[in-house]
Structure formats: structure tokens, C-alpha cells
């Protein structure tokens, strides 16, 4: 099957540091990519370049479109979750999902079933009353709302206990089986099957 | 004709590279220094000492030879900054961002000089150090906008990002400044129905006009000189970790 | 999914309005700040009726400018920290429409308290009744323009102090101030004030697309 995203010769400089040079990889459907590096090694910058938040300096990114051609613009539905969770404290768990930009056309039952799947049972309590772990679970529930093509998640496994980690691994494997791919970052390799890219630059 | 155009285009592209700009500016700097200081001093001396005395205002009007060029420069520099800002945002050229940053304090200084000389002119002719006259007020507002730009740049630590931020601000400025001038003009006519302006230029004979033009030219040349000097310093500071800088100044290979 | 941008526009309005009303300080504080600023003038200068009446248009407008400037300060900071703001720029949809939605919502939440405060102030500053309608119209147009300017000031100084945002925005708000006070003053003298409102409307018409586009650029700077 054709890769959904092809990256060639991507390099980036930040404040006199070469963060990464000549990166090449492809994101195939159902397969994952893990970007590993220590703090400040450019993982978040790489994700942001892939998504178009930062200008691509040198290199090329090509996205697959509906007619199996490769373009510079993205026509695949993507999901992005940054370092901070994107969960609003003033809204309840259900409202956080209902009022998210990823939930257009999603029914209420789907929202409730996603919340139940990640183990959040009190749907109407405000997110401000929940612990960080529970907020992380709400943010994971958003992954289940629709069938996205590629999921870009920044550090999904940081600050998680074993139970939540295995929940994430389970969900990633389920979604892989449906053809979705994950591009995640982290400090160390995780338990999901993936191609690993290590970023490290001379300090 | 095409050849000249290509030559100019190539020069622009070359200037976009900091080490090449530095080399080129080192070559022209002595000439620029000589020409600009000469024209500046000749113009000022002519205007301040050798032009005829105005029959209405006496010798006081001579401050016009500093006030008017400074005011003109203050406004032109803002236009220049807006153009640099546009180039920076649209084509992401780094050197135009540095040009913008280097031009800002020069523009602010000229605007301040225009304000001070306007105020000094007002004292003998009108008896007060300040009057809320339309031109002085809009020059004051222009000074505030310059101050905002300089303040914004200094508050952002990542200087490339700071350049882009002040590009955006100068674009907003260039759009709103005409509106500000028109509305201040209107406001002033509301409160001072006579069409009398504090720092009205005396009707000028060619004797008075010629030194004024020379002064304006001199001020523009001084701006070019100061801009080049500022930009050279800025380029070296930004690129201080690059090898061409250490080669240039320390004769070291990195 | 074609008309996504409309859905998204209303989604942002719904979400931000819901959150603003759950936190009452969002709409109470501009009102109180306005009244505090207004009350400083009689206290610091003179409580004489005629004096205050002559000052009233300007004082009300200055208080409106300062209140809307301070109120708009946090428009992007929370969403930026949360990660919610990233979603605007990742999609293929035009992000300046979404930024406009945020500004509109912010104005709806803070503009009405300012209007209410100005009505109260017109009472305590002895403003004649004939000028109330033009005052409200000019404040509606003017505070919206101030919200747009404040948004770009907040985006440029994201994460920095409010006073920096104030120096950036206040010089550009002088035309609004002049036109607004002119509208109210000429209404006191029973003269035609429609021209001033038209000019303020024209500034809004250019300002909405232009300033929203520049605000998008300013926010994107923070991701570098």
C-alpha cells in the first residue's frame, strides 16, 4: 500500500544548532513512527513542521491524496495532540469532546462510548475536578471519535501509570488494524511496534 | 536594459547574505561617510548661517533647516520600515528584518529631534514650549509608535521572531498612520478654527528653499550612513557564532 | 465536511461563550474597572456638574479604551497554553475566520459590560440624554475595533506583560477615540453625528479582514 506521507531530506536549524539533518521516512497505513530524543532535541519542532505550524526550511513533504497522487498540501484527516492536552478545565468531560474541533458530525453515543472506553465514567463533572491522569484519558478519548488517517501525538506516554500506558497501547493497536498510523514522540522507545527515528544533536 | 535589471536583481540577492553584505558595506562605507557628512554639514551651515532672514519671524525660523528634514525623515523611515516589514513577512528574507530593526531607532531619533526643534521653534514665536498643534501631535503619536516597535523588539528574546513581530506591527502602523494624521488634523480644526498653525513655514523664497532641499538630501544621506553602520553591527551580533565573523575580526579559522 | 468552517466558527463561539459565562470574572471585571476609572475623574479633579458634563464624552471613551484593552489581554494565552489554539492552524481551513470568531466572542462578553458601565457613567457624569444613543452606537463600533487591535497586541506580546500590549495598541486607537468622542460631543449640541459613526464603521470594515490576517501571522510566530 502507498505511504500516506513521504518526508525527504528534512533538516532544521534552531539558533545555531542543527536539530536534525537529512531526515527521510515514510508513514505507511497501519504502521507507526516513533521519534525519540532527549529534551530539546527537536521532537516537538519536527512534529510542528510536519503539521505546517512552522515553515519547512529544507526538504520536502508529500502527502497522498484521494487520487493516489502526491502533493504538498494535506488532504488526509489528521489528529494532533500537543504537549499540553487540549482539555479545557471549565468544561465537563462530555463537553470537552462535544465542543472539540475533532467532533464534527459525531453523535452523542459515540462520544459517550469513547469516554467509557477510556475509563471515564463521570461524564458531567468538570475537568478542573479531575486528576491529570483522568484528563489524559479524556484527551485519549478524542482519538476514538472519528477515523483519522494519521495521528500526531506529542509524548503520549509521559507521566502515565502502567494501566493508562497499556490502555494507550491497546487503542493504538486497534486503530492500526483499521489502517490509521501514529507518529508519536517520546524520550524512550515504547511498547508499540514502530519504526524509530532518533534525534540527537551535539550539544 | 535587461542586463542592468539582472545586475540589480543579482545585487539584491547577494545582499541577502550577511557576509556578502558586510563585505560590500565595508567597501562603500568610507565613501558614504565622506559624502553624507559633507552634504549634511554644507546644507546645515548654509541654512543656519547664510540664508536670508525672514521678515516675520526673524532668525528664529532657521530652525526649520533642522525641523523640516527631521520630520520628513521620521515619516519616510517609517514607510521604509513598512516596506522592509512586508518583504520580511512575504519572502522571509532575514536581512530585511534586520534592516527594519536597525532603521527603527534612527527613525525614532529623527522624530524626537523634530519634536524638540518644533518645541524650540514654538517658544519664541508663541511663548510656550508645547502646543497641541496638529503636526506636533501627529509627530508625537508617530514617536509613540516607534517606541512601541522598539519596545516590542527588545522584549522578545528570539531575535528572528522579534524581527517578524515588528514587521507585523509596522504593517499595522503604515495602514493606520494616514487615518491618525487625518483625524488629528480634523480634531485640530475643531478646536482651533483659524487655519493658523504654530510651526507654519514662512513663505519661502528660492534663497531659503535651496538650502532646505540640500538639508533634506543631507539628512537622507546621514540616514543611509547610520543605517549601514547599524545594520553592520546588527549582522555581526546576530551571526557572532558563525565562522565568517571570527575570520573577519579575529583572523582566526574556526 | 465541506462547510467545515461555518461549523467551526459557531463551535468556537459556543465554546468560548460557555466558558466565559462559567467564569463570572470575565464579564464582571471590565464593568467594575470602567466604573473605577470613571470615578477617579470627579475624585481627582472636581465634582462640579458642569465641569463633569464637559468632560464626560472624553472620560467615558478613555475608560472604554482602557477597559477593552485590559479585557482582551488574555484572549489567546489560555488557549495557547492548552494546545487548543494549535488546532486552528493545523487544519486546511482559513484560520483568520477562527481568530475572528474568538475576537467576536470576546467582544460579546466584554463589550456589553462596557456598554452597561457607560450607561451608568453617563448618569454619574451628568451626560444629557440626547447623547445616549450616539454614545452607545459609537461604543459598539469602537469597542469592536479595540478588540481587534487588542487581539493583535495580545498575539504579538503573547506571554509578556499587559503593559507592552498597551503601548502597542493605544497609539493606534487614537482615531477611534477622536471619532467616538466627536460623535458624543456633537450629539450633545444636537448636531449630526452620523459621519463619525460611518468612519468608525469603515475602519471596522477594513480592520476585520486586515487585522485578523495579521493576528494569525502574529500567533504563528510563537510556534517557532
Features:
heterotrimer; A: 203 residues; alpha/beta; five-stranded parallel sheet; four-stranded antiparallel sheet; C: 224 residues; mainly alpha; 10 helices; elongated
List the helices and strands and how they pair.
The complex is a heterotrimer of chains A (203), B (254) and C (224).
Chain A: E1 5-14, E2 17-27, E3 32-37, H1 43-51, E4 58-64, E5 70-71, E6 78-81, H2 93-98, H3 108-117, H4 132-141, E7 150-153, H5 162-177, E8 181-186, E9 194-199
Parallel strand pairs in A: 3-8, 3-9, 6-7, 7-8
Antiparallel strand pairs in A: 1-2, 1-4, 4-5
Chain B: H1 2-15, H2 18-50, H3 64-91, H4 94-126, H5 134-155, H6 159-191, H7 206-238, H8 243-250
Helix pairs in contact in B: 2-7, 3-4, 3-6, 3-7, 4-5, 4-6, 4-7, 5-6
Chain C: H1 4-22, H2 25-44, H3 49-71, H4 77-82, H5 86-90, H6 95-124, H7 132-156, H8 162-169, H9 174-188, H10 194-221
Helix pairs in contact in C: 1-6, 2-3, 2-6, 3-6, 3-7, 3-9, 6-7, 6-10, 7-8, 7-9, 7-10, 9-10
Structure description:
The complex is a heterotrimer of chains A (203), B (254) and C (224). Chain A is of the alpha/beta class and 203 residues long. Chain A is built from 5 helices and 9 strands, in the order βββαβββαααβαββ. Chain A has a 5-stranded parallel β-sheet with strand order 6-7-8-3-9, with helices on both faces. In chain A, strands 2-1-4-5 form a 4-stranded antiparallel β-sheet, with no helix packed on it. In chain A, helix 5 (162-177) links the parallel strand 7 and strand 8. The longest helix of chain A has 16 residues, at 162-177. The mean pLDDT of chain A is 85. Chain B has 254 residues and is mainly alpha-helical. Chain B is 80% helix and 0% strand. Chain B has helices at 2-15, 18-50, 64-91, 94-126, 134-155, 159-191, 206-238, 243-250. In chain B, helix 3 (64-91) runs parallel beside helix 7, helix 4 packs antiparallel against helix 5 (134-155) and helix 4 (94-126) packs parallel to helix 6 (159-191). The longest helix of chain B has 33 residues, at 18-50. The radius of gyration of chain B is 21 Å and the shape is globular. Chain B starts with a helix and ends with a helix. With 224 residues, chain C is mainly alpha-helical. Chain C has one domain (5-221). Chain C has 10 helices and no strands. Chains in contact: A-B, A-C, B-C. At the B-C interface, helix 5 and helix 6 of B face helix 8, helix 9 and helix 10 of C.
